[in-house]
Amino acid sequence: MSADKSTDASNDYRIKPGSGWSGAWKKAAAVGVFGFALAGFGFTQDAKRFAFSYLFAFFFFLSLALGALFFVVVQHLTKAGWSVTVRRTAEFFMAGLPAFAVLIIPLIALMAQLFPWLAPHAAAGHGASTHAEIALIREAHAADLHAPQAADSHAPRKAGPSVVARVAARDPEAALEAAKAHEHAKLIEGKKSYLNKPFFLARNAFYIVVWAALAYWFFKNSTDQDRTKSRQATVNAQTWSPLALALFALTLTFASVDWLMSLNPTWFSTIFGVQVFAGSVVSALAVLILVTMSLRDTTLKGAINVEHYHDIGKLLFGFNCFWAYISFSQFFLIWYANIPEELAYFHMRWSENGGTWQGVTAALPILHFAIPFWLLLSRNVKRNAAGLVLGSVLLLVVQVLEMYWNILPNFGPFAPHWLDLACFLGVGGAYLAVVFHRMENFPLVPVGDPRLARALHFENA
Amino acid sequence: MGYYEPLQELDEAYLVAPGSTLAEVTEDIASVTENAAPRGWWIVFMGALSLLALFGGTVGYLFYRGVGVWGNSSPTYWAWDITNFVWWVGIGHAGTLISAVLFLFRQKWRTGINRFAEAMTIFAVMCALIFPGIHVGRPWVLQWMFPLPNQMSLWPNFKSPLLWDLFAVGTYFTVSAMFWFVGLIPDLATLRDRSINKWRQRIYGFLALGWRGSNRHWQNYERTYMILAALSTPLVLSVHSVVSFDFATSVIPGWHTTIFPPYFVAGAVFSGFAMVMTLLLVSRTVFKLHRVVLMRHLELMNKIMLLTGMLVGYAYAMEFFVAWYSGNEYERYVFVNRAFGPYAWAYWTMISCNVLSPQVFWFKKLRRNIPVMFVVSIVINIGMWFERFVIIVTSLHRDFLPSAWGMFSPTVIDLTTYLGTMGVFFTLFMLFLRWLPAVAISEVKGTMPQADPHHHDLVPEGAE
After folding, report:
1. Where are the domains of chain A?
2. Number of independent structural domains in chain B
3. Residue A158, exposed/middle/buried by CB under 10 A (0-12, 13-18, 19+)?
4. N or C terminus of chain A: which is more exposed, having fewer CB within 10 Å?
5. What ipTM score was computed for the predicted complex, to two decimals?
6. What is the pTM (predicted TM-score) of this model?
C-alpha cells in the first residue's frame, strides 16, 4: 500500500548536528552548574532560605517529570494510536527521573530546616518553655476563661492565684500562644509514627526506586523497539501499564504528603495528592507542546502536525479544568466548613505572613483557570501554533508560581529571593541536561512502533 | 495491509462480529421492537410491575401516615431515603460518561452500549428525584423545593447545598434527556421506515422530526452531538460533586473531607458501569444482541470497573490515613467506629464488594467470563449502596455528644420504598427495550469495516 511509504525514509527523526538543539544538553548542564554555584554560595548565607528555594525547584521539576511518566503510561493503558509520534518526547522528560535520586541529596541533608516535625520543641513555641510550664500556663488560662462567667467570681481569683496564673492574667495573649503551641506540639507528637526521620527516608528511597525503575523500563522498552520493530514490545508496555499507574498514584500522593503537606504538619487535606497530580500533568502537557513546537519544522517535520497539537491542546485544556475542579473543591470545602485547623493552609496564604501572599493567592484562579479556560476553549486556538504556545507558556509559568505558592509561605512572607532563581536554574539545568542528552541520542519519534503510520496519518474527527 | 487495519498482535479488532453486514445490524436491533416479546422479557417485566405496585402502595401509605413510617430517628435523621437518592443518582452517571466523555475520547466501543446506558441514566435519575420529593412529607407543597420567596418575601438559603442539588440534578436530567433524544433521531427514522403499521409509522415519524438522512441532516446532527457531549462532560463531574457537598460542607467527621467531590464521582461511575453491565448481560441474552455487543465491549467495561474500583479504594485509604494523620480525635473515632463499631459489618461489606471484588478483573480469564462479571456487577452495586449507608449512618449515629448516640434500624416501609423504586426503574427500562432501538444503530455502523473510506480498496466490488 502506498500509505506505508509516507513513513519518510529520508527522515530518521534525529536531531541534526549543527541545529539549534544539538548540544543543548551541554548548555543546560552549564546553566545547572552556574545555578548550583550560585545556590551553593546562597546556602552559606542563608541555609533555611536555600532549603525552601531548593525544595520549590526540586518539586516543580519532579512534578513535571512525573507528569510525563503519567502521559506515557496512560498512552499505553488506553492503547492510544494517535499519540505514538508525541509519546517519545514525553518519554525523554520521563527518562530524566533517575536524576532526582541525586538532586534529592541536599533536601535530605537539610530536612531539619524544612520540617517542624523534626524539631518538636522548636515548633512548641519559640523556645519559650518546657511542656510542664506550658501546661501550667494553659491551665491558668483555662481558669481565667471560665472565671468571668459568673458575676461574683472575682473572689476565687483574688484568693490565691499562682505565679503562672498571674502571668497569664497580665498577658493573656502570650498565655494563649503558649497554650496553642502546646496543643501543636501534642498533635505533632501523635504523628510521630509516620513523621519520623527513618520512615521518611525509607519512603523516599522507595519513591525514587519506583520512579527510576518505571522510567528506565518504559524508556528502554520503547527505544529498543526502534531497532527491533517488535510488536511484542508494545504489548509488554500495555501489559505493565496498569501496575505502573497504580504505583504512580501511590508514590505521587505520599511524596506530596511528605514534601509539601508536612511542611505544616498540623494541616491535612485528603484531596491534596490529587491536586498535586493535576498540576503535574498540566506542566507536562505544556512542556510537551512547547518542546515539540520548537522542533516542528526540523526533526519532527511531518511527524507531529496540527491534528496532534489539537489533541494535546484538548488534553491540556481538560487537565487544567480538572486542576481547577480539584483546587476549587479543596478551597471551597475548607472555606465553607471554616474549621481552624484546616483553614490554616489558606490563612497562611491570605492573612498571615503580613498578607503578602494575597496577590498570588488571588491571581491563581485567574491566571491558572479563567484566562487559559477562555483561551484554550476555542478549536481555532488549539489548532493555531501561536495560540497554543501562548496557552502553554501561560500554564507553565503559573504552574511554577503555584508550586512557589505551595511551598514558600511556609518559610515566610512573599519576598522573592535570588536563591529561588539560582535553585531553579541549578535543579532545572541538571534535570534538563539529562533529558536533552537523551534527546540527542535517540530518534524523536518511536520509529519501531507498529502504529507509527497510523499516528502519521492521524486526523482529528 | 493498510495502517488503518486493526493489528491483531495488539489485540485490536473491529467492534461488530466479523462478517456482519449493515442490514444484519439493523435487523438485529430493530426487530427487538417489532417482533413479539420473548418470554424472558415478560418474566422481568412482570416482576418489575409487581415492584411498581409495591411502590404505589408504599408511597400511598407514606403520604397517609407521614415520614414517621421510616426508621429515621434521633440522631440519625438521614438514613435510607438519602442513601437511596445518592445510590440512584450515582447509577445515573455511567450514561453520560459513556455517551459524552468516552465520545470525546474517541472510544468507539461505547457505541455498542451507549443507548442502554443513557436510558438507564434517565430512569435512575427519575428514581433518585423521587426521594427528595417524598421525603418532604407534604408532597402537595413540593414547589418549596424550588427557590421561591414565601409570602414574607423570604428566600430559601442559597448557601444550602440541598438547593444546589436541585439545580445540579435537574440540569443533569434535562441535558441527559436531550442528549438521549438527539442520538435517537436517526434510529427513530429507521424504525419509521421499517414500520408496516400506520400508527407505528406516525408515532416514530413524529419523533424522528422529519429525518431524511441527507448530508445536511447528518452535518447538523454531528455538530449538535459534539456540542451536547462537551456540555455534558462537566455535568458528569458536577452532579455528584454537588451531591457530595450535601455532606462535605458540614462539619460532621466522616462527612467533611476535601476528597469527597472526586471520590463521589469515581464511585458514581463505578456503580453506573456495574448497573449497565447487569442490564446489558440480561438484555443481550434475552434479545440476542451478540452481533453488536461483543466480549470485547464487556471486557473493556470490566477494565473501567477495575479502574474506578481502585479509585474508590484510593479514596477510602486516603480518608482513613488522613483521619489518623489529622490527629483529630473525632475524625479518628469515626473511622475506628466505622471499621470496628456496631456497623462494622456494613463497612466490611462495602470494602469487600467495592475494593476486593473488582480485583478479579486483573485476570483476563475472569474478565471474559460472563457468570463472573454478572455476579461482580451485582456485588458492586450492593457495595455502592452500603458505601452511602456507611457514610451517612455511621457518621450520624455517634457524633460529638455520647449522650446523644443511638442506633438506626430500618422499617419494612424503608425496604418497600427502596424495592419500589426498583420497580419504577425496571418497568421503565423494560418498556424502553421494547419500544426504542436499544443500541445506537447508526453509530454502530460507523465502527464497522464498511464505514472505513478505504474499505472498497480492500474488498472487491460485489463481494459483500
Report:
1. 35-110+195-456, 116-144+156-194
2. 1
3. exposed
4. C
5. 0.93
6. 0.91
